[in-house]
Amino acid sequence: MIRSLATTVLRAAAGSAPAPRFAAIRTAPAAFRFASTSTPAVADAAREAYIEKLSGADAGITILSLNRPKAKNALSRQLLAEFRECLDAVRFDSDTRVLVVRSLVDRVFCAGADLKERATMNPTEVAAFVSSLRAAFSELEALPMPTIAAIDGAALGGGLEMALCCDLRVAGPGAKLGLPETKLAIIPGAGGTQRLPRLIGPAKAKELIFTGRVLTPADALAIGVVSRTADDSAVPGALALAREIVPQGPIAVRMAKLAVDRGSQVDLASGLAFEQTCYAQVIPTEDRLEGLKAFAEKRTPQYKGR
Fold first, then answer.
1. What is the model's pTM?
2. Which class does domain 19-245 fall in?
3. CA–CA separation, 236 vs 172, rounded Å?
4. Would you please indicate which residues are annotated as catalytic (active-site) residues?
């Protein structure tokens, strides 16, 4: 167990993996333009998911936008394929220190699976799609940098399962969160029965899944489904949280995420050993020396991710 975990840390630190396919990097439609974005805002009607790398004061933050308004961001084959391309694009990007996942569709984050498209599939195609969906969400969960879901509107079924794969979740005032699959005589099939209990405990997760109850932002905050709520849109709240993370040592943040994620799934002794292995990866970094130097000189450190 320890040897396997140590190998995971070394691979994560080295970034060893096949060369990824890169999705097109776009800028956001004008209504969602950020002050720090240096290029003109251009909508791309052909893509249902794309990424935007912020610049200026927000350098280090990347936005992954979902944009399928005709179906309320329901997860179709096309949206899922483009979503996975976006994950490929950021996975090995050392410039991305935080990824924010948000919707460009009014009053919805993600409505879950595209049931109209699924109705046209035979059982074999359904199984293949659900397997691809699970793989995509696992890829989101396994990204090395912190991820934040900015939830405005409905995050139901697969939409909430997607958000649960992010490290942190911020809910806007109109957010609706739930796993209502039992109302359709099915169960959450993309990780909901596993990730939700690990987040809020088995009993409360069973209650939500058995009843199909939809939570308000206040309800979700009270039981720990989200870590923050926002008075207006969730996106500014998610960006504010991202801005708190970006200045920290990027290698340290990635190693801390890995230590928490993997350590929480094993016994305490194995988790402590894994933490020690992660800690060993930050010792030889230039950033660690910069942190010590900046502390001695009473200035803000400038971390380079080296």
1. 0.84
2. alpha beta
3. 10
4. 113, 158, 161, 181
